[in-house]
Amino acid sequence: MVSCERTSVLTRPIQRVVLGIMLGLGMLLVAASPASAHANLVRTVPSQGQHFAAGSGPRTVSVTFNEEVHATDRSLVVYDGTGKAVSKSSVHGSAFIATVRVSVPSLAEGTYVSVWRILSDDGHDERGAFTFTVGTASAVANINALVGQGGLGTVGTDLAWLARLVGYLAALVLVGGLLATTWWFPGVAARPGVLRLLRVAAAASALAALATIYFEAASIGGSLASGFSGDALSTVLSARFGLGPLVRGALSLGALVLLWRRPPGGAHGRRLVVGAGAFGLVLLATYPWAGHGWGGRWPVLGTVADFVHLGALALWIGGLGVLAVTLRGSGDADAASSAVQRFSPLALGAVAAVAFSGVLQSLRQVGSLDALVHTSTGRLVLIKVLVVLAIVIVAAASRSAVTRLRASDDPDHTRSLSEVRRSVLIEVILAVVVLGLTSTIASSAPAYEQQSAKRAAQATVQRSSAQAGGLRFTVALQPGLVGANTMAISVTRQDPSRFLPATLSGTLRCPGTKPATLRVSPLPDGRWVSAVRFPSTQACRLELLAGDGTSSTRATLSLSVR
User: Fold this and answer.
1) Who's near 469: CB < 8 A, 6+ residues apart?
2) End-to-end CA distance of the chain, in Å?
3) What does the alpha-carbon distance between residue 301 and residue 294 come to, in Å, rounded to a whole number?
4) Rg, C-alpha atoms of the chain
5) Which residue from 421, 356, 426, 433 is spatially nearest to 169, judged by alpha carbons?
């Protein structure tokens, strides 16, 4: 906050908060160490890329995790080269198990893709794939398409994220707003706008909790329609990630009933708010218990840090919401100044608690400097830190405006009061941004899980393309890992006067190895296929020579695997 003293940009309390955030971030960067895995894949049978002699393929395929996960009969499926499922699951209905196993018949020669998809105990949808070969390798079904089957889709995923965001915002406004109307801004609950804010927050929190349960059930069932399935809903409500929203919805509905019967205010109102506040404290506790707080290393510390984080956010955001509604309808400069002055120390302490508890959670969930920088969740943590710093600066401007408001010689204080309202509005907008980031981080796999997944041998499709001589060459590599790969090449015409190739040959040049001449064979669907081996993750150069009987075309592509 801008000080009245010209020798300092920020007052000392704000300087301490900024310094604390920066020191916490530095501690995160320096002290981060590898975290224990949480719902990580430990072993696959067969192992990635394992080769079996013809007629001696495996009769069972399995995936093992470091803890029990939610599995169904669709959690592990083995597909042949055409994308046809050839496995039979041993899971009937749903179960919480550490090893998911399927049986397969006597397998013909070819390359097979095993796709797994499970829900961890905190409700995260995790999936991956691995390949193995029996006898002679063959073209592989589209791994990316197979792994992507059975999800909520882009629309469903976005709606699930929106439900979480609305739930976070509503719960924080409800809990913090109830406390604000009793302790810091007595009498404002009688204003229709404030009471309407609390009632809307309670209703939105209850509806968002129900929506969260629905989307978890839909994720289990594999489609939006299956969110209403009795079996899927029963499974969700038997797990932490379902019980948490259920309790939260019931508490929010109870708070709504209490608020509707009697608005907070007066002696009886204070007792009512204390009871509703107790509801709110339990409500906030459902988030760490059903989410990241209870998972990973240091679960007790994680739960406490998560609860403190959410509690501080509630005090700050809920109070900020009530303050914004109060200022909007206030023309009394003295009353506005008094309200902001009362709220300012609370907001300062809440932001400091948010920063400190956020650092503790980051130490648990990020795990390493590499994960902080090179994973999507780690980068979101960094962005959240920057937004919190921005909020501190905006809060400084708000307090400076209040100081000018109290000292202004302008009798109606119009300009200074307008500055206070604008600063609070900006702070509210940044608070919503923080909640959006928090919702995204909470719904994403922890950074150390993402980093571990990068190191694990998970099959995928790596693509590259190039244009030459009026033709476009597109290469798809599977499984996209060091070692043996199947390379499918598609050739399309960019120039209508060109002919598609009748012959195709290739040479692969990788650093530190001799050039390899590839045997490229045509497929019935017009593609070309070749077996290729990558010695490392270093980029290799693929040189293709296409002939149509009258002319030839050379194309060069850069290929790399994980």
Assistant:
1) 495, 498, 551, 553, 554, 555
2) 48
3) 9
4) 29
5) 433
The stretches in the chain having pLDDT less than 70 are 1-39, 93, 121-123, 150-151, 184-190, 262-277, 291-299, 302, 329-341, 362-365, 367-368, 395-421, 442-457
Tell me which H or E stretch contains 206: helix 192-221
One-letter amino acid of 1: M
> How far is it, in rounded angstroms, from Cα 433 to Cα 394?
14
**CB-CB neighbours of 388 under 10 Å:** 21
pLDDT digits over 221-243, tens only? 777 887 888 877 887 887 777 88
Whole-number Å distance between alpha carbons of 362 and 62? 33
pLDDT tens across 507-518, in order? Answer: 999 998 999 999
3-state secondary structure 378-390: HHHHHHHHHHHHH
Note the pLDDT of residue 105: 93
- How many residues would you count in the chain? 562
- The sign of the dihedral angle between the CA atoms of 56, 57, 62, 66 is positive
Rounded to two decimals, the pTM is 0.67
Q: What pLDDT is attached to residue 556?
A: 95
At 139, list the tokens: 């073209």
How far, in Å, CA of 541 to CA of 109, rounded? Answer: 30
Chain center to CA of 346:
30
| The dihedral formed by the CA atoms of 374, 380, 382 and 385, expressed in degrees to the nearest 10 | -170
Question: CA-CA distances (angstroms) from residue 164 to 178, 235, 260, 427, 483?
Answer: 21, 20, 25, 21, 41
For the residues of 209-239, what is the DSSP string, one character each?
A: HHHHHHHHHHHHHTSSGGGG-HHHHHHHTTS
CB atoms within 10 A of CB 448: 29
Q: Quote the distance between the C-alpha of residue 87 and its chain's center.
A: 31
Nearest residue to 500 (alpha-carbon basis) of 529, 526, 479: 526
Tell me the C-alpha to C-alpha distance, in Å, between residue 354 and each of 27, 236, 313.
16, 30, 7
pLDDT of residue 202: 92
Asked if residue 258 lies in contact with residue 272, where contact means CB atoms within 8 angstroms, the answer is yes
DSSP state of 334: H
